[in-house]
Each structure stands twice: as C-alpha cells, then as structure tokens.
TrEMBL record:
SUPFAM superfamilies: Ribonuclease H-like. Pfam families: Dimer_Tnp_hAT. It comes from the Eukaryota. Residues 267-297 are annotated as: Disordered. This is HAT C-terminal dimerisation domain-containing protein. Residues 323-403 form the HAT C-terminal dimerisation domain. GO terms for molecular function: protein dimerization activity. InterPro entries: HATC_C_dom (IPR008906), RNaseH-like_sf (IPR012337), ZnF_BED_domain_contain (IPR052035).
Length: 403
C-alpha cells in the first residue's frame, strides 16, 4: 500500500509501507513519524513494523465510544421507532402535507424530519432532536391513521430519546471543530478530553439513570483508548507547544518528563543545525582576494561570519533551558487565536522551540481532511471522466481544494 509521509526537513513524497497489504484503514503520516489511522489491525501492524507513533483518529474513536454507549435494549427500541416514524413521513406526501398543517396549527417550527446515516452518529442525534421538537405535530398526524398509531412514541420511549439527546448534543460541536483543516487541531485533543470529563460528560445529580450510563461509558471508552504512554506523550508534547495551553492540561506527574523531552529535542535540533565544523576548511572570506579593499574602522570590531566560535555544551544547555522557561512563563495566548500566527511572530525569540512546533502542530486530530480530499477526487474522476491522466487528476484536485 502506498501512503503519504511528511518529513519535517524533506519534501512531501510517497513511500511503500510494509505490513499494509490489503489495508482497509486510512493511513496518514504527519509530524515525521506519527501515524494517524483508523482501527484496522493491518494498519496497527504496519505502524509497529515501521516503529511509528500511532495516533488514532479522534472522530473515529468518539464514534466508536458513542456506538458502544448505545448498546442498550431500551435505546434500540426507541431509536428503531424513530427510524420507522421518519421513514413513514419520508415516503408519504400526504403525511408530509398533514405534518406541515399540524406545525402551523400548533405554532411549531416548520422543519422537516431528519434521517439517520449509519456511519455518522451526529445524524442520529439530529434525528432524535427533530422528533422531540415535532412530537406534538407527529402525534396529531399519526393518531388519525389506524395503521400508523403504533409509531407514536410512548412516554417511556420519549424519556429514552430525551436522555440520548441530552448526552450527545454537546458533543456534536466538538466533532465539527476537531474535523477542521484550517487550524491546528492535535493540540486540542488533550484539552477536549479534559473538558469532557470535567464538564461536558460530567455526571450531574439531576441526570436520569440512562444519561449517567451513557456518559460513563463514553468516558471509560475514551480513557481506555488514549491511555497508551506513547499517545499520551505525543498529546502532551503537542499541547505544551501550543501557546494557548502549554502545560495547563499536562498532569503534574508528567510535567517534568515533558519538559525533559522538550529540552532534549531542542538540543538535538540545535546540534543538527550547527553540524560538524572542520578547522582546516577555508572559508570564502579567508581566501586571498584579487582586489584590495579598504577596511573601515568598524570592520576591525566585526567577527568574520565563518569564524564565530561555537558555544560550549554547557552554554548551549543553559540557552535551551532559558528559552524553554521563558516560553512557559510568558502569558498564554487567547484560546480563539491562531497559534501558528503567534509562532510566526515569536520564532526569533524562541528559535529552537519554533522548529519543534513544525514537527508536532502539523498533525491533524482526525482524518477528516484526508477524507475530504478523497471525496474531491471522487467528484473529479467520474464515469464521464475516467480517462484523465494521474497528473491531471492531481492538478484538478489541488485547484478544487485551493481555489
């Protein structure tokens, strides 16, 4: 299988990934050695063989967490009635007309019912929310039809639907936000998980029993899937390099290791940039000049660029520690500001840290941006345009995504 790999210091290219033959899971690499993927066992094996850090798509994980929480006979019955109810209105123009009249009589919003898409949990929540909104109008229409009266939700079904809607409605906004491709998203994962447990999915005293069960199952599933030490370290590093969050969402026992990891990577980046020096190599300024130039007085106080003495390891270590502490102690950026703009303005002040941001903040939290590109490619290559050359397809997809 061919997969896209992004190297921090190399141009974008394709490589052959061993272990992904017949892969049915999405494999996307970013940040040098980070693999963003679905839960396919072959993709997991490929990441292990290539020694890549695995980051599971947050949107897919949240979808599986919700599906796991929905495994309840009461929920199956209530959602099944919702589907049949919506289907009965979708295929009957007479019932649609009666529903519109009932909405006017009851002064309800004139909204159409929504259908669930099995692969999108948000569509289920939208369907349930719309049924609850139009419940009186639906009951008025179906009560006049003997063959359809059994589709009217009972009070038990209504309680179940309200519990589902109360649990899932706050999560839809986070899914849409984390699926964006216009701003940094991987550094949001750790803060979002913290927000889930502290407020959004926190069990309240007035929550019904089913709502409590749904919230607990979702949190337990996410905690289980994101407890891997490698994943936790990756999320902590990305969050620490985001000037909006820094070390705010890193657990106390992980602060020291993350700072040590940042320090070591900053030092390694600086040493790679400086590279080895050979004192016997003659620089351009040391070469004899054919034309004699008059020196200015200031030139006697200026050190030649190629003969600048290298700082000692101890001095470099102090500079790295000073830069990191200065970054941590500066004021946090507003949560709605763009961290990339902030780093663009402060890269001269934090030269070593700014290089690490290019490695970590380029990682997407979900695979939605890649899937959008696939969808765009599907819209370009159709039955009527099946003879396009690959290079022309690449150009058309690029134009469609960037114009």
């Amino acid at each position: 299988m061919l997969a896209d790999v992004i190297f921090p210091t190399r141009p974008h290219r394709r490589v052959d990934c061993p272990g992904t033959e017949g892969s049915d899971g999405l494999l996307e690499l970013a940040g040098g050695e980070t693999c963003l993927h679905y839960n396919g066992s072959n993709v997991v094996k490929a990441a292990s063989l290539n020694k890549w850090t695995r980051l599971q798509c947050f949107g897919h994980r949240l979808h599986l967490a919700i599906e796991n929480a929905m495994r309840d006979p009461r929920i199956d019955r209530a959602v099944g009635i919702c589907k049949k109810l919506v289907s009965s209105f979708s295929y009957s123009w007479r019932r649609k007309k009666e529903l519109a009249q009932a909405q006017k009589e009851l002064k309800l919003p004139e909204h159409a019912l929504k259908t669930e898409c099995p692969t999108r949990w948000g569509s289920r929540q939208a369907m349930i929310e719309r049924v609850l909104e139009q419940q009186r109008a639906i009951s008025q229409v179906l009560s006049t039809d003997r063959k359809a009266r059994h589709l009217i939700p009972t009070w038990q079904d209504t309680d179940v639907l309200e519990a589902i809607n109360k649990s899932l409605r706050p999560l839809t906004e986070f899914t849409d936000a984390l699926s964006s491709e216009k701003y940094v998203s991987v550094s949001f994962v750790k803060p979002v998980l913290h927000l889930f447990s502290s407020s959004i999915l926190k069990v309240n005293d007035d929550d019904p029993g089913l709502t409590t069960t749904i919230k607990t199952k979702i949190l337990s599933y996410l905690d289980e899937k994101y407890k891997d030490p490698g994943t936790q370290e990756l999320l902590d590093m990305a969050s620490a390099l985001d000037p909006r969050f820094k070390l705010r969402y890193v657990s106390e026992d992980r602060v020291a290791p993350i700072q040590a990891r940042l320090t070591s990577e900053m030092a390694a980046s600086a040493s790679m940039e400086m590279g080895p020096t050979d004192p016997h190599v003659e620089t351009a300024e040391d070469a004899p000049s054919t034309s004699k130039k008059n020196k200015t007085l200031g030139s006697f106080f200026k050190t030649a660029e190629g003969t600048t003495p290298r700082s000692s390891p101890h001095q470099e270590q102090q500079a790295v520690a000073s830069e990191l502490q200065s970054y941590i102690q500066c004021a946090n950026l507003d949560s709605e500001e763009d961290p990339l703009d902030w780093w663009r303005e402060h890269q001269r002040l934090y030269p070593r840290l700014s290089k690490l941001t290019k490695k970590y903040l380029c990682i997407p939290a979900t695979s939605s941006p890649s899937e959008r590109v696939f969808s765009t490619g599907g819209n370009v290559v159709t039955c009527l345009r099946s003879s396009l050359k690959p290079e022309n397809v690449d150009r058309l997809v690029f134009l469609a995504k960037n114009l």
